[in-house]
Design brief:
Elements lengths: L6 E2 L1 E3 L2 E3 L4 E5 L6 E6 L3 H14 L9 H17 L1 H12 L3 H25 L4 E5 L5 E10 L2 E5 L5 H14 L3 E5 L6 H13 L6 E3 L8 H7 L5 E5 L2 H12 L4 E5 L4 E5 L5 H13 L9 E7 L3 H14 L18 H16 L3 E4 L19 E4 L6 H4 L6 E7 L2 H9 L3 E2 L1 E5 L3 H8 L6 E4 L14 E2 L2 E2 L4 H7 L1 E9 L1
Parallel strand pairs: 1-5, 8-9, 8-11, 9-10, 11-12, 13-14, 13-19, 14-17, 16-17, 19-20
Antiparallel strand pairs: 2-3, 4-5, 6-7, 7-23, 12-22, 15-16, 18-21
Bound molecules: nicotinamide-adenine-dinucleotide (NAD) and (2E,4E)-2-amino-6-oxohexa-2,4-dienoic acid.
């Protein structure tokens, strides 16, 4: 008799709450059911929002900025104490290499809380002096207050990193939160609720509801009129849907959405560094990072050499179990997502792509053949109008095209409905500064990729997002700022 599967519960008003209706959490490594997840009903979502709202009138409202910062440090310590449990949870849900979960996902979870603890502790406010017409002195200053209840809806690609990237500043600014993690990655969010409970966060300040989007916990949450602000990370079309829901009641929104990012490689680059960098930016997390490069433009003199080096690099990637020595690529998140990515592999062939490497599914000859693995794939030869060069695949794939001039490559990079990130490889830093500011994107990395200073604004242009988070931009989004003017 097999032991019952773990049950991942909701967390509402300081208690773990099961639901009658559950859904399976399926391993993308081998297709096994890992746990059953409690799907929150509309009534339970309403209870979570009500608990968050009343927590605004409770002990949490008495916390000073420094006490809130101390609480965030306790939460960071709590995650660190259970670090390996978080790693195991993230790896089980997503199939990613253990090493990545350790050094990126969970490490950033701890770092996010510590960063916003210090940012809020050091954050001052603004003060202005002026003289009125009657000669009296006028002092104006600002105060930051919480919005109240913040809904946080997060995706499955970097579950812990992206959830804590929002929870930390929201709590730092004194809000209560109701989080709705992706149905495809429920485990680390559930562990985070346990850490919040252990840290002694007052009941109702942090709430977790599991479920899906439309006609499930996600939609119930965004339509609840007592939600004061919504921060969402996910697909652009989902963002548009949520924006409509947020518009009823005119709530603040912050969106981190899709991308079709470019890497631009000039002939004067450090060639080996550029190859290693573009392999990282194309295949990290099996290409399931919103910042990944799915479009690569290479200056013509080094184009053939670069394609050959990328092919060799992609074919050296070790795809396998998360804990295998030297593994650098795991599965995709789900069979459903793998079918989407394989659909683009098929579409590329019909659009006339040269398939330099990959384009299919690795055969392991074991239980992993029941998982959601695909081969790292490189295309060339497609036109800029091809769907595979314009639409986000969100898998381990890139298209490499040659270019001849700066103006040409800038025009082609900007010819996109998205505007999230660009990675630029050149030794000529004068050119780097000049070219970087001409890309219509939220972020440009020069001779690196996904290197993050959390004090900087993060976000996208066009379909890639709305607003900026990071550093004081997060404190601004998660606060209601009042100006107080005193006629002395
Ligand atoms: N810009 C960024 O920083 C960033 C970061 C990570 C992922 N992304 C994007 O996210 C996408 C992949 O993530 P995904 O597949 O989880 O995205 P998704 O939009 O399908 O889902 C994201 C979250 O929204 C919820 N949701 C879906 N429909 C909803 C609705 N109508 N109302 C309320 N909630 C709803 C889902 O349950 C999930 O929790 C990619 O497009 C990627 O580019 C962007
Ligand atoms: N928001 C961040 C990363 C987003 C990654 C997208 O998949 C971050 O590094 O803070």
């Amino acid at each position: 008799m097999s032991s019952p599967l773990p049950l991942l519960r909701n967390y509402v008003a300081g208690e773990f709450v099961a639901s009658e209706k559950t859904f399976p959490n399926v391993s993308p490594i081998d297709g096994r059911t890992l746990s059953q997840v409690c799907e929150a009903t509309a009534a339970l979502v309403d209870r979570a929002v009500a608990a968050a709202k009343s927590a605004q009138e409770g002990p949490w409202a008495e916390f000073s900025v420094s006490q809130r910062a101390d609480m965030l440090m306790r939460i960071a310590d709590g995650i660190e104490r259970r670090f390996e449990e978080f790693v195991a949870a993230e790896v089980a849900d997503t199939g990613r290499p253990v090493q990545q979960a350790r050094t990126l996902d969970i490490a950033r979870g701890v770092h996010n809380f510590r960063t916003f603890a210090e940012l809020v502790r050091q954050s001052g406010s603004e003060f202005f002096e002026m003289r009125a017409a009657d000669g009296s002195d006028v002092f104006s200053y600002t105060v930051r207050k919480p919005h109240g209840v913040v809904a946080i809806i997060s995706p499955w690609n970097l579950p812990m990193l992206l959830l804590t990237w929002k929870v930390a500043p929201a709590l730092a600014c004194g809000n209560s939160v109701v989080i709705k993690p992706s149905e495809d990655s429920p485990s680390s969010a559930t562990l985070l609720a346990e850490v919040m409970h252990e840290a002694g966060l007052p009941a109702g300040v942090f709430n977790l509801v599991h479920g899906f989007g439309p006609n499930s916990a996600g939609e119930f949450l965004t339509r609840n009129p007592d939600v004061d602000a919504i921060t969402f990370t996910g697909e652009s079309r989902t963002g548009a849907t949520i924006m409509k829901a947020a518009a009823e009641g005119v709530r603040d929104v912050s969106f981190e959405l899709g991308g079709k990012n470019a890497a631009v490689v000039f002939a004067d680059c450090d060639f080996d560094a550029a190859v290693a960098g573009v392999l990282r930016s194309s295949f990290t997390n099996s290409g399931q990072v919103c910042l990944c490069s799915e479009r690569v433009y290479v200056e013509r003199p080094i184009y053939e050499r670069f394609v050959a080096a990328m092919k060799a690099g992609a074919e050296q990637l070790k795809i396998g179990y998360p804990d295998e020595d030297g593994v650098n690529m795991g599965s995709l998140i789900s069979h459903k997502h793998r079918d989407k990515v394989l659909g683009y592999f098929e579409l590329a062939r019909s659009e006339g792509a040269n398939e330099i490497t990959g384009g299919g599914v690795p055969v392991f000859g074991d239980e992993r053949d029941n998982g959601a693995y695909v081969q790292p794939t490189i295309w060339t030869g497609l036109s800029d109008d091809a769907r595979c060069v314009r639409e986000e695949v969100f898998g381990p794939v890139c298209h490499i095209a040659p270019f001849d001039t700066e103006d040409e490559v800038i025009r082609r990079v900007n010819d996109s409905a998205y505007g999230l990130a660009t990675a630029l490889w050149t030794r000529d830093l004068k050119r780097a500064h000049k070219v970087s500011r001409r890309f219509h994107v939220g972020m440009v990395w020069v001779n690196t990729w996904f290197l993050r200073d959390l004090r900087t604004p993060f976000g996208g242009a066009r379909l890639s997002g709305l607003g900026r988070e990071g550093g004081r931009h997060s404190l601004d989004f998660y606060s209601e700022i009042s100006t107080i003017c005193v006629n002395a």
